[in-house]
Amino acid sequence: MRAIKFCQVAVFLWLLLVIVALAIGTTLLVVDRLPLGDFRGVTLVLAAVLLIYLYAFLVYRLFLLALPLPEGEVVEHSRDELAANVNSLFYLLLFNSLICTHFIPVPLQRLIYLALGARLGTNTYSAGALLDPPLTRIGSNTIIGHEAVVFAHVVEGARLELWPVQIGNTVTIGAKAVVMAGVQIGDNAIVSTGAVVTKNTRIGAGEVWGGIPARKLKSAADAA
What we know:
alpha/beta; UDP N-Acetylglucosamine Acyltransferase, domain 1; 2 domains; six-stranded mixed β-sheet; 5 helices; 18 strands; 38% helix; globular; Hexapep; Transf_Hexapept/Carb_Anhydrase; membrane
């Protein structure tokens, strides 16, 4: 695993400072002027925390507009590495607590993933964790089961790669399944509970896959 470099940490800390300054400024200029009653102090703290996350979503998306995440191998000391590692710092220090939790209702979790850049079709929800939302593309009427994990990064020693995950319409990803970087899953496919779909696997429309590593259990023709 590569070390995150000082300049990359500095960029993230500067962005974090902007986020905190905006949140505190909004809290003092707007929320503090409201009639908050006996719980004024608690309300101001909660408002500041909420605003930190809202501004974090905004600043993060603006950062991705300026430095989009690359697809493929990330070369060390490159602009792509800066984008990838600052993105990692956002998740490690801010967003991981939102993604890896059972306390946020699934419909609200969908809104968080959309705010972080995931492409989710209508009526698609995840009760698991989408670890790389900007590189996750899921169609409509798809469900990601409880404690399933979908991620788009590959870390192999010092090698770092980013490959988007593409999941079609009406797909079922079973509970505790793992879907790795570069996986493509066709419409109406099923990934069984606890399966591990290794990187760059192609699952055809209507197929059923399961096991560790996942393999095809049933083709679309068999299902018909």
